[in-house]
Amino acid sequence: MTDEQKVRVLTVDDSRTMQGVLRKALGEAGYDVIQGGDGVEGLEVLQQASPVPQVIITDINMPRMDGFQFIEAVRKLEAFANIPIICLTTEIDEEKKNRARSLGATGWIAKPFNAEKLVWAIRRVTA
Amino acid sequence: MGDVMDDILKIFFEECDELLPELERGLGELSAEESSQETINAIFRAVHSIKGGAASFGLDRLVRFAHVYESALDGLRSGKVEPDPAIIKTFFLAMDVLSDLVAEAKHTGDEVDEGRIDENVRKLEAIIGKGGGAPVSSEVGETPVPDDFTPVTVDLGGFDFDEPAEGGGEPPQMLTVTFRPHSDLYSRGDDARNLLMGLKELLPVEEAGAMDVVCHMQDLPALADLPAEDARLGWTVRLPELSSSGIEDEIQAVFDWVGDVCDFQIVRDGQPEGETEPEPVEDTTIQENAPAAPVPVEVVERVAQADSSPPAPAAAPAKVGRKREQNASIRVDIGRIGMLMDMVGEMVIGQASLESALTRDALYDPELLKRLAVIKTLTRDIQEAVMAIRAQPVRNVFQRMQRVVREASSLANKDVALVLEGEETEVDRTLIENLTDPLTHMLRNAVDHGIESPEARQAAGKPTQGTIWLSARHRSGRILIEIRDDGGGINTQRVLQTAIKRGIVASGASLGENEINELIFAPGFSTAETVSDLSGRGVGMDVVKQAIQNLGGRVNIKSTPGKGTLFTLSLPLTLAVLDGMLIECRGSTMVVPVSSVVELVTVQKKDDVYTIPDGSHVVSVRGRCIPLIYLGDELTLPDDGGLQEETHHMGRAGEEGQMIVLVVENEAGARAALVVDGVRDQAQVVIKSIEKNYRQINGVSAATILGDGSVSLILDVSTLIVSATKRVDTRALEAIAERAA
Q1: How many CB pairs below 8 A link A and B?
Q2: Neighbours of A118 (CB within 10 A)
Q3: Which of A21, A81, A126, B572 has its CA 20 to 30 A from that of B469?
Q4: What is this structure's pTM?
Q5: Same domain as B18, residue B120
């Protein structure tokens, strides 16, 4: 499979471990993975990415720019207003879920995740 | 596959090594009442990230503890728990446990005692109880009780999508799912198509045809009247319930994300219409209205309603603007920098050799030399820049000392605060790595021997809490690290008595205060009456001194009785280059580290050099007798042929004329005088390991390449001194000194 055929996923997480796990899990599932180390970096990667990722997976709890701010910022950019965003986080607080949702998040997966669940989620929004 | 996982595990441990000091720093700020919400967030995030990463590798013990810890911290984060000293102490102790659990997982530490974990968990749970800090995270639907937290290890092995969904012999029951998305579903990047695909995927491929889909289009107005962003379609899907139980939950899961922006209903055949399923997922609102009924929802209104929480605090664009400068760092493998460092070293050598060629008569060309000067400047700049890359702030090592002091003081029943200064000071990475052990030992010592017991302090009119200051700063191309305590100072009488008892000094010796203080660095010295748990770990200050010396550093002590003790470590900024004095000896050029040179003197062979009874020679310099080392003999350098006497250009004791001696000192203060033929230059040289390429040579620590391309040995002054002084009877030295005086 060439890279052009692969679905491109942007993952935003401040934990390098998590980034490594995501890179491996998604890479093996046939995704083209690009990454950002926090919201700020995620935005930068997103805006410079070519081709544009088809899904964004973001952590919530991050330094500098957290997941909420990141989602809000992405939705403000016209080009990315409708790109699916999945939150991948350990937060299971209802209030936080609702907040992410109201800011424009598409879905929510609780950590620790398994690869299958994640792939399912991505397929779910990119079908 | 194993390799990749190993790599990620390595990343995880590296990350832990960064997160733990961050945690410690945060807690430090918290206890110093300098904390902000950002500090608390950082503390929380550190534990949170460790937990998250650990869960990916099934490090259960670590995960479980981190989870309780995180839950307790969540109370702090939400402001329900006030960080009083007792709570901060609990957090500190928990951090130590966490750090030990990481070491355990890394196999660099012993297994952490279960009792200790339990004790800390109890303390943390008490905080959780106090602040109602809800356990922060676990799998959805799991009971939020820490003990029940079971991490799911990422299964990276096989992506097995074949759910065990074999049906029984009975005809499958049919389910009817009706749903109608709101326009918000689309604006959020989702699509009704995704939901349909999601449902389809619930069925095995060969059964996919068993799904029946009907689209409800009755609400669709004429095209001219159709608002482009409105959602007017609904669907009814009928599918067989193949697996006995799970499918309903799976259908719920498909709609899990869209509960608030999509009306949906699951009806089992035979179930009365309108009776909805119990609500299994918290936020999934199951609307009772029929799927086809219009849902009068204004987009604007919904957004306003849904936004129950305050808007994100910082405006994104501002953040984006600011991050440009913050983001200016990348991670580089240390090996690459080492390589760069080596290449720069080679460049320095190459350029020096070019210069020496251009200054030779045949090639002399002032114009070329002028241009070479530009390259020379650039080379030096590059060298400094590369060294700056390797430089790291001493912060992490310093932070680690907080724990050392905390543990040591609790073992010694003392109350000691450690104040860090100059943590930003940058030092070469290899140096930092090698500093941890000596510093640990010195701080343990300061707590154990420096700071008095609270009672003694009170009696002396001091605050019961002792203070140790650990500071770092740059001074004239070296780094100075000071360890200062406000304890009782060094008891010189006791030190002297002990030294006499141990046979380190003669009983009649009269020593100055500084010399007595220096005795604590003597091998085998320990003044503690009982060997305590702390400092008496079989390592003395002599080892500390040796370690510092191996780094090219020196240790000095200053002690004021009743007021405290100050240890000053002076270290080079890097281990890659060295300030050397280039000396000549029997036609060879050698390098003596400038740090160990005391002075360069010319002595009268006849009057200043004495032969002591065992036949060796000593030289009197400023009233002090110093063993003389004939460097050429010591290193068994090949002589130029001829008689022994003539091989030494500078001759021997008893002859007429002068002799150049280089007085050198090791860190223990022992001196020797090296007889050299001349001094050529003083230069910065690049250190090249000999051991790595050849083998260890006594008296030589490393090699370097000089400008003319020749290899030159860097002398190991301390081993030279040791071998020289071993031969010389110190009593004989004293006798001669007296006679000379």
Answers
A1: 194
A2: 23
A3: B572
A4: 0.48
A5: yes
